[in-house]
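SEQUENCE AND FOLD
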Amino acid sequence: MSAYTHQDPRLHGIKTKIRVVPNFPKSGIMFQDITTLLLDPKAFKDTIDLFVERYKGKNISVVAGIEARGFIFGPPIALAIGAKFVPLRKPKKLPGKVISQEYILEYGRDCLEMHVGAVETGDRAIVVDDLIATGGTLCAAMDLLERVGAEVVECACVIELPELKGRERLNGKPLYVLVEYFEI
């Protein structure tokens, strides 16, 4: 589901604050730069508020944020809805015992890790990131949470690149996005 289809007036302000940088980090990529969104306190607050409005009162106990930009949006959402924030990190970034989930990218393999015991059986989780492209990272995050017994209620992203069909890889899991970007 896209919030953009409901035309909340805040969405236009959010979308206009996301800078598109052509050919970054390599030729042919249209990079969605959220740092310009973060520079605008109203647009940043509107972004958080839209997610909070969606998840408040839904009995969400875990907001899992994907490194690194999920760490920007996840904690304020978690605080506002009374949930714990669980960082899902790249390998060897968390001290102590971790559980890992490998996944395949267009250009190789990667891995997400979280602390053992951070999420428990029966927790209701949302997975937060800035963007969904091919969906590989979100799938790995969901797999990691479900392996320890959490129920992943939904994935939440600021931006979706629909042409890359990441939503289709989520095996029917709901995806909530604020803005969509179509390459022209």
Remarks:
- The chain has one domain: 9-180.
